[in-house]
């Protein structure tokens, strides 16, 4: 067994390449389609009755203080990055007032 790399050539196989492209396209569409449909529904007046563009839903959500929940999810919980946890540890709020 050797740790020296040896060059190799990938043989041309059009059927394999076509299957890979189709599988990649299907996976991409399956991943992108749900968020795209939610984004579309967010900017229509009343789905599916009135599909005209509006920003009223954004204003309505801000009037319901959704921005506070969004900020809370970023700063309090750290948005999955552990920022909030590190801030609480630094201020001594985690595990009582030990400061660790």
Instruction: Tally the helices.
Output: 4
Tell how many strands the DSSP assignment holds.
2
Helix content: 55-70%
Strand order of the largest sheet: 1-2
Quote the distance from N terminus to C terminus: 48 Å
Structural class call reads: mainly alpha
CA radius of gyration = 25 Å
Low-confidence stretches: none
- The average pLDDT value, as a whole number, equals 77
The H-and-E topology, N to C, reads as: HEEHHH
Q: How would a crystallographer describe the biggest sheet?
A: 2 strands, antiparallel
Beta-strand percent range: 5-15%
* Shape label: elongated
Describe this structure in words.
By secondary structure, the protein is mostly helical. The chain is built from four helices and two strands. Strand 1 and strand 2 form a beta hairpin. The protein is elongated and about 65 Å long. 0% of the residues are buried.
Keywords:
single chain; 100 residues; elongated; 2 strands
